[in-house]
């Protein structure tokens, strides 16, 4: 199968540090190549892949301070992809609504995986404009704000089974991994750790858009003796970081579409304590891979129960549910359905 994968340009594929969508695109692309498919990856030129790389610019947008209008780079990429659409059996986009107008007007089947939140009114407006095109959700919960789109399937994220593995280290702290923003709940994680009497290590990115929030709300909390900020970390650092944690704290307060850090923790055998928001009940199994809680009091109450969880079993559940191979097989099934549907439409048009 000739497959085009369209990645965001903000980070390389895979990202050198933080970057959830680009990390998923990398996992999917490499697994599709391993399965024998002919894959072309449209991404930034500093990406590393076994697929055929179609470099849309030299480097990721976040690493290039000369970029003033990132939208222009996206529109250039979309035009180039549309001109090459006939080279592929299926086009798989991960860049939201940007390519929908052009891709909707050419013959190659395509689908769009939506990686972000959908509960803003502008998103409902734009996606319902293209409501007949096929979309994939990354959790069932993600669909709720726009339930009547042409949802082809929910495909939960996955990653290579050997990317992150349990390490033989002693558990000494709680971990917070990801991004510092109001919805991610670092302030709650700091309070939970303090009440539990456990050190908290924070491996997180601070976006420019969240810098004022960090300075106002988070920075004053970071000077507490139980908090250690270690900054962004890469994949080679994650196994030891997550394996050394009693649990990953994920006290979010927003409709999380998936939450990749949860399965990264599970890959290392590390339990997750997470708020019941968004996708959390679809990813975590309460009492098996972690604890799903409603508030900070319940999070603190769950801490003594962490010792009841079997870290080897958590790792096995990751292998059963969240590998890149399972994710790729799910997507190939969707690709085949869309390709067959397009063939039937063409046949009907010829016979009409």
TrEMBL record:
Domain Glycosyltransferase subfamily 4-like N-terminal: 18-126
SUPFAM superfamilies named in the record: UDP-Glycosyltransferase/glycogen phosphorylase (SSF53756)
CDD domains, per database record: GT4_AviGT4-like
Domain of life: Bacteria
Residues annotated as transmembrane: none
Residues of the signal peptide: none
Protein name (database record): Glycosyl transferase
Organism: Teichococcus rhizosphaerae
């Amino acid at each position: 199968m000739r497959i085009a994968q369209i990645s965001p340009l903000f980070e390389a594929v895979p990202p050198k540090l933080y970057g959830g969508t680009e990390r998923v695109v990398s996992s999917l692309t490499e697994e599709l190549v391993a399965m024998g498919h002919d894959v072309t990856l449209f991404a930034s030129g500093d990406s590393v892949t076994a697929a055929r790389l179609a470099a849309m610019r030299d480097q990721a947008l976040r690493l290039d301070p000369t970029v003033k209008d990132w939208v222009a780079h996206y529109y250039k990429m979309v035009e180039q992809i549309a001109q090459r659409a006939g080279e592929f059996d299926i086009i798989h986009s991960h860049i939201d609504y940007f390519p929908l107008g052009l891709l909707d007007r050419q013959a190659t089947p395509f689908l769009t995986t939506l990686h972000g939140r959908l509960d803003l009114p502008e998103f409902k407006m734009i996606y319902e404009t293209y409501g007949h095109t096929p979309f994939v959700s990354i959790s069932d919960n993600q669909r709720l704000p726009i339930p009547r789109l042409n949802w082809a399937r929910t495909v939960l994220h996955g990653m290579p089974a050997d990317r992150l593995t349990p390490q033989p280290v002693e558990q000494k702290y709680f971990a917070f991994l990801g991004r510092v923003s109001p919805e991610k709940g670092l302030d709650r994680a700091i309070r939970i750790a303090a009440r539990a009497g456990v050190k908290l290590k924070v491996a997180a990115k601070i976006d420019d858009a969240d810098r004022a929030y960090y300075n106002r709300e988070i920075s004053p909390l970071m000077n507490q003796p139980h908090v250690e900020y270690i900054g962004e970390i890469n994949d080679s650092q994650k196994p030891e970081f997550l394996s050394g944690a009693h649990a990953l704290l994920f006290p979010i307060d927003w409709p999380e579409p998936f939450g990749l850090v949860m399965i990264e923790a599970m890959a290392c055998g590390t339990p997750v304590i997470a708020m019941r928001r968004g996708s959390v009940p679809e990813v975590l199994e309460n009492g098996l891979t972690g604890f799903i809680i409603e508030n900070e009091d319940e999070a603190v109450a769950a801490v003594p129960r962490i010792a009841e969880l079997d870290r080897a079993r958590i790792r096995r559940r990751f292998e059963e549910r969240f590998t890149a191979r399972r994710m790729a097989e799910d997507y190939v099934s969707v690709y085949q359905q869309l390709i067959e549907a397009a063939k039937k439409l063409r046949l009907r048009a010829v016979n009409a």
